[in-house]
Amino acid sequence: MEKFTVLTGVAAPLPMINVDTDMIIPKQFLKTIKRTGLGKHLFDEMRYTPEGAEVAEFVLNKPAYRSAKILVSGENFGCGSSREHAPWALADFGIRCIIAPSFADIFFNNCFKNGILPIKLPKEQVDLLLDDASRGSNAIVSVDLERQEITGPDGGKIGFEVDPFRKHCLLNGLDDIGLTMQQAAFIDQYEGKQRGGQPWLWG
Fold first, then answer.
1. N or C terminus: which one in the chain shows less Cβ crowding within 10 Å?
2. Closest to 52 (Cα-Cα) out of 40, 63, 70
3. GO molecular function, one example (predicted)?
């Protein structure tokens, strides 16, 4: 998993509440188990017409936001079904941080497991960031995970909270497999003893 230390980039405003996982990645794109290639289908039903043409008014289709790294949205982001494809699609598009007043629990947890930092802030502060994000290509926001600090386009700073263990995992690029592999020496030692004492398990 890619490390998350300091993220600086354009923030895209999506001032909607109850953005569910079917809106993030519609069900017809859940057939793959690959984490790549889903970015082009992110918000598919809002980004494209039924004929496949881009909807010019949708924020991620606007030139200023096509390379957005941060998404600022409304309450209850990621509600609906628990599909892990939702953070996969966001990450594949290039979104590494989502800022909202609240998140659905399963989606919130899945973000951390896939290298995305979800940040909960009071609605008043999210509204300020939505206003910042509305500046188009000038909406450059920096998220410093070590300092737990967001810096807006005008230099204003907003602090945020994050669970210490999840912070450690993001800073070091550790997903569940990475955490397990940190114990590789102990796993090898255990398997070595088992091979000697119970060789039939390894036949």
1. C
2. 40
3. 3-isopropylmalate dehydratase activity
CA dihedral sign of residues 192, 195, 197, 198:
positive
The Cα 153–Cα 13 span in angstroms is 14
**Is 131 in a helix, a strand, or coil?**
helix
- Please say whether the beta carbons of 141 and 133 come within 8 A: yes
pTM over 0.70: yes
The residue type found at 166 is R
pLDDT digits (tens, 9 = 90+) for 29-51: 998 888 889 999 999 999 999 99
Task: Provide the H-helix boundaries in 58-163.
Answer: 85-93, 105-113, 123-133
